[in-house]
Design goal:
- There is one protein chain.
- With 300 residues, the chain is mainly α.
- The chain is built from 13 helices and no strands.
């Protein structure tokens, strides 16, 4: 796969995730967040399992115990990100959720500092300030107007950043993107269903009423898009991957306007633009700096 093809794969994943925000929101009319997340990722795990088995046969062995533990850790991060996002959609709009979730681009280098002791590029800090400004405007110009759902969406972005960081590390170490995907889906589904059984009612009517949304996010938004993510990340640079994946915010707002007739105030649109500009700034500046340094090194 060429880099251009990989970036187009990531763009497709972002478009699918953008549509997934709409399905996640409408499903909440009939089913609780824990059962919805549990069912969507159970379907995703079942869909990916045959391909993960084929991957293991091709490699001549199943993943080691250590690899399974690493994949399970990614699954815990996935669960925390998915459930905070899903619960957040109860009290925030699809547009807000999609843009606030994109904050993971800022949190990824911060997590790299904490876990791997790697200092981020200087542009991360002004980028973070731009993000805060964008959130302020998206909230209508008053921090007090941020809903619980908005705060959960920001929390969700931290867990997505952790999931992206761990998934990128472990997929490069193991070279098993499908096994990683299947394991993380299974862990996320199991944890969600355990909590769902404790705190949420479930009925056949609830499942049948939201089956369309469950199948879309299970087979397409989860099963297909997350696999596209881990596959595409193998053939492109991390900065380019983040740029294309972060476009899910734009797709989310676009689909919300079409299918849910969501609108935001003028200040909110300015905030969205600032958030997306910060995302591009944080990813493009380090890449351009690296290319310039390589060019200078080649001349000398």
């Amino acid at each position: 796969m060429t880099r251009i093809q990989a970036n187009l794969v990531l763009l497709l994943a972002a478009a699918i995730w953008g549509g997934g925000f709409v399905a996640q929101s409408t499903a909440m009319d009939t089913i609780g967040p824990f059962w919805f997340v549990g069912l969507r990722f159970a379907i995703a795990a079942i869909a990916v399992l045959p391909f993960a088995a084929m991957e293991s046969r091709k490699m001549g062995s199943a993943p080691s115990r250590g690899e399974f533990k690493a994949f399970a850790l990614v699954g815990v991060a996935l669960f925390l990100g998915a459930i905070t996002q899903q619960i957040g959609l109860l009290t925030t709009s699809v547009t807000n959720s999609s843009f606030l979730t994109a904050l993971y681009v800022i949190f990824v280098p911060v997590i790299a500092v904490i876990i791997y002791r790697r200092n981020p590029h200087w542009v991360v800090w002004p980028g973070a300030l731009m993000m805060l400004t964008g959130i302020f405007l998206l909230s209508g110009g008053a921090i007090a107007s941020l809903t619980t759902g908005d705060m959960l969406s920001i929390t969700c972005a931290v867990f997505w950043a952790l999931q992206i960081t761990l998934a990128g590390r472990f997929v490069m170490q193991s070279n098993r993107p499908l096994a990683l995907s299947c394991t993380q889906f299974s862990i996320c589904a199991a944890l969600s269903m355990v909590f769902g059984a404790m705190v949420e009612p479930l009925s056949f009517t609830a499942i049948s009423s939201s089956i369309g949304e469950i199948l879309y996010v299970g087979l397409v938004s989860s099963g297909l898009a997350f696999v596209l993510q881990v596959v595409g990340q193998r053939y492109t640079t991390a900065p380019q991957a983040a740029i294309f994946l972060s476009s899910e915010a734009l797709f989310g707002a676009f689909f919300a306007a079409i299918f849910l007739q969501e609108t935001i105030q003028t200040a909110g649109y300015i905030g969205c633009a600032i958030i997306f500009a910060a995302i591009l700034l944080v990813e493009l500046v380090p890449e351009l700096s690296r290319k310039r340094n390589n060019a200078l090194s080649a001349k000398t």
